[in-house]
Specification:
Blueprint (H helix, E strand, L loop, with lengths): L8 E4 L1 H5 L11 H7 L8 H33 L8 E7 L5 H13 L7 E5 L7 H6 L14 H12 L5 E7 L4 E10 L4 E5 L25 E7 L1 H17 L17 H24 L8 E5 L5 E7 L2
Parallel strand pairs: 2-6, 2-7, 3-6, 7-8
Antiparallel strand pairs: 1-9, 4-5, 8-9
Helix pairs in contact: 3-4, 7-8
Length: 314
C-alpha cells in the first residue's frame, strides 16, 4: 500500500485489496458473471472475488455508517420517516467497463444478508432526443455535458433523495441510438441506487442566484471512477465497434446498420475517427478531469482487469 503524503488517496495493489474481502462469501456463479458483463469486457469470476467482493464489503460499511448517522440525526431533530436511498455514482470513459461494474455491484449488494433493494439507472436515458440534438447542431457532441437534460437528471436525483415513491427515469435504446418515447423505468424507494454514466462527476458553473444544486454528484454518498490508460481504452472502443459490426449493427433497425456494410478496414477507420473526434475529446475535456473527485478509483490494465485500487483518505 502506497501512502504518499501528497496524494489524497491510499493505493492498493490487487493482493492487498483482495485481502479486504475477508470471509465474505462469493454468491455469484460463472454463468451469472458471463450474463452480467458487457460486450468485450472479459471480467472473470476470480476478479469478482478479488476486487468486487472487497468493494462490496467497503460499501456495506459506508451504508451502515450512513444509516447510523441518519438515526442519530433523526433522534437529535425528533424526526420520523424513511431513510433516503444510498446513492453510488459510477463514472469513466466510454468502453472502460462502467456498465459491467455497475451490474456486478448491483448483484453483489442485493445479496447481502439483509437483501437490500438495489436499483441501477444509467444516464443514457437523460440524453436529449436526437431531434433536439440535431436542432441544436450538437449531434456530434452526443455524450458531452451539453447533450444531457441536466435539469431532468437533477430533478430525478432530488426526488430519489427526498424518498419519493415511483420516480420515473427515461429509457434509452442503444439499437436506435435514441430515447424511447413515452417509456420509463420506475424507481420505488430502493435501499441503494447505482447511478452510472460518463459525466456523473462533472462540475458546472455555479448558479448566479445560488438556488439550484449545481453538481449531480452532490446527491452521491459514494463515487467510483473506472480508469485505464488512454491507448487501452481506444483499443477496447475499436474492438467493441468491430464486434458490434458483426452483431447488433447487422439489425436493420440499428442506427449504425450502415457500418455493417463496409469492410473491416473501413470500419476500423470509422471507429478510430469516432474515437478521436468525439470520445477522446470528451475524455480529455470533461471525463478525465473528474477522476480526482471520486471516492474510489479502479484502474484497469491492458487485459481489462483491475490492477490498482485508489481509495480516498477520510
Amino acid at each position: 500500500m502506497e501512502q504518499s503524503e501528497a496524494s489524497p488517496y491510499l493505493e492498493f495493489d490487487i493482493d492487498e485489496w483482495a485481502a479486504f474481502r475477508a470471509d465474505t462469501p462469493l454468491t455469484l456463479t460463472e454463468e451469472e458473471v458471463v450474463r452480467l458483463r458487457s460486450l468485450n469486457d472479459p471480467i472473470a469470476l476470480d476478479e469478482v472475488g478479488r476486487i468486487y467482493l472487497s468493494l462490496s464489503r467497503l460499501l456495506a460499511s459506508h451504508v451502515e455508517s450512513t444509516i447510523g448517522l441518519f438515526k442519530q440525526r433523526a433522534r437529535f431533530l425528533n424526526l420520523h420517516g424513511q431513510k433516503t436511498p444510498f446513492i453510488i455514482g459510477i463514472a469513466g470513459s466510454v468502453a472502460v467497463g462502467k456498465s459491467t461494474t455497475a451490474r456486478i455491484l448491483q448483484e453483489l449488494l442485493s445479496r447481502w444478508p439483509a437483501s437490500p433493494k438495489v436499483d441501477l439507472i444509467t444516464t443514457d436515458g437523460f440524453l436529449l432526443p436526437n431531434e433536439e440534438l440535431r436542432r441544436l447542431d450538437i449531434m456530434d457532441r452526443k455524450g458531452f455535458p451539453e447533450s444531457f437534460d441536466r435539469r431532468q437528471v437533477l430533478d430525478f436525483l432530488s426526488r430519489i433523495k427526498a424518498g419519493e415513491r415511483n420516480v420515473q427515469a427515461p429509457v434509452y435504446s442503444h439499437m436506435v441510438y435514441d430515447r424511447v418515447p413515452d417509456e420509463f423505468r420506475t424507481v420505488d424507494q430502493p435501499d441503494i441506487l447505482i447511478f452510472e454514466g460518463i459525466n456523473v462527476l462533472q462540475v458546472s458553473e455555479l448558479p448566479a442566484d445560488g438556488n439550484s444544486v449545481p453538481f449531480v454528484s452532490d446527491y452521491f454518498d459514494f463515487s467510483i471512477y473506472i480508469d485505464a490508460d488512454e491507448q487501452d481504452i481506444q483499443n477496447w472502443y475499436v474492438d467493441r465497434f468491430l464486434r458490434l459490426r458483426e452483431t447488433a449493427f447487422r439489425e436493420p433497425e440499428s442506427f449504425f446498420h450502415r457500418y455493417s456494410q463496409v469492410s473491416k478496414d473501413a470500419a476500423r477507420a470509422i471507429a478510430l475517427d469516432l474515437w478521436e473526434r468525439i470520445n477522446l475529446a470528451n475524455l480529455h475535456e470533461n471525463i478525465l478531469p473528474t477522476r480526482k473527485r471520486a471516492d474510489l478509483v479502479l484502474h484497469k490494465g491492458e487485459n481489462h482487469a483491475v490492477d490498482l485500487v485508489s481509495l480516498r483518505r477520510l
